[in-house]
Specification:
505 residues, alpha/beta, 3 domains, five-stranded mixed beta sheet, four-stranded mixed beta sheet, 15 strands, 37% helix, 17% strand, globular, binds zinc ion
Length: 505
């Protein structure tokens, strides 16, 4: 680094003397006495000045808006593959680790410690971190690739953005599933999007770009290695070879998306649902509200409680046990959900209704099957399947959920359930004058685990597996898609029993 190390003075906020410790150097700093401030998410010197910690002395913070930065540039989540000769030679590799840490710290702080694409926070239990990602503007005429914005992305969104890299490292399915979950794109929309991104990447990769990093240099960040374009190309090839262990083709081929991790109602070009009685007329007469057809009256676990009673009656004492345990689980989850669906005192005073609505034990079809909880809120509709395992040991590896050593079909079932719910609710919305809502409806299956512990090896595409203590966090972290009026409209339709009782074509 060309600059002199800054004088080591206790400068920073309050009484804490913060340090800029890059992740790769944290063990060294810790050994020398540095401590971690969980709230500030920074290392600090507990007894300043501690000998040996000076190399990490915090430099003045970088400004919250970098010179020339456009924070509206490149909003949301999309596949944005950097041209071939720039791979891995990103901003991080151009600045010192300490400057990178300064930048990363500013970016995560100004984003409120949330991903700016999906609003998820850091979660070490699921290996989700917040990372800084560069948004570039490409000028085809001048051949300049200019840094326009630094955006805070969670590792999942970051992976989706770098789909080419995800493909090379065998994680394309995971990246596509996340892209679908966050954007609500259908499978065919995702295919088109990936296709277009691939074509753009191919076109941009056909030339060598000149990097414009004035956004950083004007903010006082020193470029450690202003590499030439040729150096960058060689470095990209080298790192890619290391990653793959082969020199095979680099082009990230658009892949066929995996099956439906994101659920939408069936296409409206399909023949209309045999709705039995005309749903629109049925719902228009408000006489059903608070009556036996109003599912809002359903108590949590009521479906399984009936089943427990039936088993006890037909099969004898003991046959009802697992059903009772199941009912307990649903009641536990309902209690957690009530923190979202019960208006706070303040909102009661303001006559504002809670942002979320819930229906319990929603009977689907004509058999005894029901969905434990249907939650309707800002992100759309969430179907929750509750699994109660007292002190159970669960292991999740993709679609396989193993409970106490036994493989279960919980994940495919949860997905099927959401798909069916999406089709039923989607066609009902369509039939009752909300075609626009029906088209935008996203259904997110959640498997809520009560008791027990889950060891996660890899995620189940499109299905969230969540312990009850993380449930509200998971739900409130989902990106918003519906406004309060739309939530009310969906709830108004979903609460009628007839909506769920129909058979699908
Ligand atoms: Zn994210």
């Amino acid at each position: 680094m060309a600059e002199q190390p800054p004088a080591y003075r206790p400068t920073t906020s309050g009484t804490r003397v913060y340090l800029d410790v890059p992740y790769s150097e944290k063990e060294a700093a810790k050994a020398l006495g540095a401590r971690w401030d969980q709230a500030a998410k920074r290392w600090y010197d507990p007894r300043p000045p501690t000998t040996g910690l000076d190399p990490w002395a915090a430099r003045p913070p970088v400004p919250d808006l970098l010179p020339g930065e456009d924070r509206a540039f490149g909003a949301g989540l999309f596949v944005d593959m950097v041209p071939r000769w720039c791979w891995f030679t990103n901003v991080r590799s151009c600045v010192t680790p300490q400057d990178w840490e300064r930048l990363r710290h500013m970016i995560t702080r100004r984003a409120g410690q949330r991903c700016e694409a999906c609003w998820a926070g850091e979660d070490r239990t699921v290996q989700r971190w917040l990372e800084a990602h560069e948004r570039w503007a490409y000028d085809d005429r001048t051949g300049v690739q200019a840094l326009r914005r630094l955006i805070c992305l969670c590792s999942d969104c970051h992976l989706s953005t770098h789909l080419g890299l995800a493909n090379v490292t065998g994680r394309a399915d995971q990246a596509l599933a996340h892209l679908r979950a966050v954007t609500g794109m259908t499978d065919s929309e995702v295919s088109r999007h990936v296709q277009a991104a691939g074509e753009l990447w191919t076109r941009r990769s056909a030339r060598v770009w000149t990097l414009d990093l004035t956004m950083l240099t004007d903010a006082g960040v020193t470029l450690a290695r202003p590499e030439t374009a040729a150096d960058r190309a060689a470095a990209a090839e080298r790192e890619l070879r290391d990653l793959r262990g082969t020199t095979a083709r680099v082009i990230p081929a658009p892949r066929t998306p995996p099956e439906q991790p994101q659920h939408r109602p069936t296409s409206r070009t399909e023949p209309p649902n045999r709705a039995g009685p005309d749903l629109a007329a049925l719902l228009a007469d408000s006489g059903w509200l608070n009556g036996p057809d109003d599912l809002a009256r359903n108590a949590p676990g009521i479906g399984v409680s009936y089943e427990a009673a039936r088993r006890l009656h037909t099969e004898g004492v003991g046959a009802d046990h697992s059903w009772r345990v199941g009912a307990d689980g649903e009641i536990t989850v309902a209690a957690v959900l009530s923190t979202l669906t019960t208006p706070s005192r303040l909102n009661r005073l303001r006559r504002r209704s809670p942002a979320w609505k819930v229906l319990h034990s929603v009977p689907v079809g004509t058999g005894r099957g029901d969905i434990d909880h249907v939650l309707i809120g800002p992100p759309g509709v969430v179907t929750i399947n509750t699994k109660h395992h007292r002190a159970g040991r669960l292991a999740l590896d993709g679609d396989e959920l193993i409970v106490n050593g036994r493989a279960t079909d919980y994940i495919p079932t949860a997905r099927r359930e959401a798909l069916r719910a999406a089709a039923l609710l989607g066609s009902a919305l369509d039939a009752t004058g909300h075609p626009e809502l029906a088209a935008r409806l996203t259904m997110r299956p959640v498997l809520a685990i009560v008791g027990g512990r889950v060891l996660i090896t890899s995620w189940a595409p499109g299905v969230s597996v969540v312990m009850t203590r993380q449930l509200t966090h998971t739900l409130t972290s989902m990106p918003p898609a519906l406004d309060p009026h739309e939530v009310d409209a969906v709830y108004g339709v979903a609460r009628h029993r007839a909506v769920w009782a129909r058979s699908l074509p």
